[in-house]
TrEMBL record:
The lineage of its organism: Eukaryota, Metazoa, Ecdysozoa, Arthropoda, Hexapoda. The gene is Mepce. This is 7SK snRNA methylphosphate capping enzyme. It comes from the Eukaryota. It comes from Lygus hesperus.
Length: 440
């Protein structure tokens, strides 16, 4: 366990392939050294560390010193490898970052016996690949399988909506293999709302079942999410079409809070947690009243398996997840083409999406749960949230809880927007509530 505590990402997954006990310690250690002691892999790691460094906006002496120490350590380690032509290797590394994973794998396979390929090897490889593709009549794809190409990406059909753009299908919702059976008890009544076990469960259990079986919050159906639900019916209690009547929960509050009309969907003025707890206040530091969206500090995985930190805002009115181009560039993930356009209130000019990335997110305070997510890349999501510092007078009431955004009351940039489906999947089944005050 001591060795495992120093591992993360692909190294940890490799170590876990061996049953770990004291007798197998040499086996695991030898497996790790054999895999990661290759000079080329070490060099790639150090280059990635250098390219992913970025000075925070809130610059101070401590953060500047920490950044320059990391930079110097990576550069010193890179020089210690004594690469024959370090400048050429840097150009090669930058060029390889442009390729998609399939084409890069072919390049590495071709030069498997070369310790440090040259930049000219990469240029010749890509040119030959393009020539072969044209001769074979497949210049729009690497193969007949229709996989994404570096020459022309496959465009996924999409449709847009007023206020927010949306895909034509919920690509991240799995289809149940047994469509004729209820996912809850395996009986043939199919619809969850007809399941006795579901109908007799308490509210927290119902919400847990909806999350577990990835059901639509509006109609309790499968194979789609609430953003693409075609049901014409709303909640019998409040009329909302964002949740089913069985998922309606009332929260009694004071005049400062409206009644929550959803099963864990936030009304204006409430801020719920993402895999943890986040607070909201309606009173700004100058005494004026304001309304805050829920925010969370989360971890997001980069191209090399490393974790980056970002600040997310939870928006139940969006059917798509978004990420700023600045954070997307830091992650180093390849983008797929995306023809979405985002339109705001009042028919404002549409904003073109520069691409789409696939990655994973997790809470800032825990390695679990990990959520797979698709994000559309846009230049900017919103201005700093909150717009002005707010009182942290509620913090004492929630001091026993782990906050998703420890600095919820301080204005700060927003890097990620979590849409309705990812937001609902991230909510705790039993949020903390104090009568007459914000919930967490």
């Amino acid at each position: 366990s001591y060795l495992l505590s120093f591992l993360e990402g692909s190294a940890l997954r490799l170590a876990n392939t061996v049953e770990f006990d004291p007798n197998n310690y040499p086996v695991v250690y030898r497996l790790l050294t054999t895999t990661y002691s290759k000079p080329r892999m070490l060099a790639n790691h150090y280059v990635s560390q250098v390219l992913n460094l970025k000075l925070p906006k809130n610059e101070c002496i401590d953060t500047l010193k920490e950044m320059i120490d990391k930079l110097d350590a990576s550069v010193t380690s890179l020089k210690a490898l004594k690469i024959p032509n370090l400048g050429d290797f840097m150009l090669l590394s930058l060029g390889l970052r442009i390729l998609d994973s399939d084409l890069r794998a072919k390049f590495e396979q071709k030069h498997l016996g070369t310790e440090f390929p040259l930049y000219s090897d990469l240029v010749n490889f890509v040119r030959n690949h393009c020539l072969v593709a044209k001769l074979a009549g497949t210049e729009n794809s690497h193969s007949n399988s229709g996989q994404r190409s570096v020459i022309k990406d496959k465009i996924t059909p999409v449709r847009s909506k007023v206020l927010i753009a949306t895909n034509s299908k919920e690509a991240d919702l799995p289809t149940n293999a047994k469509q004729n059976l209820c996912p809850c008890d395996g009986m043939s009544h199919f619809q969850m709302k007809s399941c006795p076990k579901f109908r007799n469960a308490n509210m927290d259990s119902k919400i847990g079942m909806v999350k577990k079986y990835r059901l639509c919050w509006a109609c309790l159906g499968r194979s789609h999410g609430v953003a693409s639900c075609n049901s014409k019916y709303g909640c019998d209690s409040c009329g909302s079409k964002k949740h089913h009547s069985y998922l309606h929960r009332d929260i009694q509050g004071s005049g400062n809070l409206s009644v929550v009309d959803t099963g864990q969907v936030p009304a204006p003025g409430l801020s719920l947690s993402v895999s943890g707890v986040s607070l909201s206040s309606r009173e700004a530091s100058n005494g004026s009243r304001t309304c805050l969206l829920g925010t969370a500090r989360i971890r997001i995985r980069g191209a090399q398996g490393e974790w980056f930190y970002g600040r997310a805002v939870c928006d139940s009115g969006s059917s798509v997840n978004f990420i700023t181009s600045s954070l997307a560039n830091r992650l180093g993930l390849s983008k797929s083409k995306c023809s979405l356009q985002v339109t705001g209130v009042g028919h404002s000019p549409p904003i073109a999406v520069s691409g789409q990335i696939q990655t994973q997110i997790a809470p800032h305070f825990s390695p679990e749960p990990i959520q797979h997510i698709s994000l559309a890349v846009v230049p900017k999501i919103t201005s700093d949230l909150p717009s002005a510092p707010v009182s942290n007078c509620f913090l004492e009431q929630f001091k026993s809880l782990q906050l998703a955004d420890p600095d919820y009351e301080k204005p700060a940039p927003v890097d990620i927007l979590l849409g309705i489906q990812s937001f609902l999947d991230s909510l705790p089944t039993n949020p903390a509530q104090i009568k007459g005050e914000p919930s967490a």
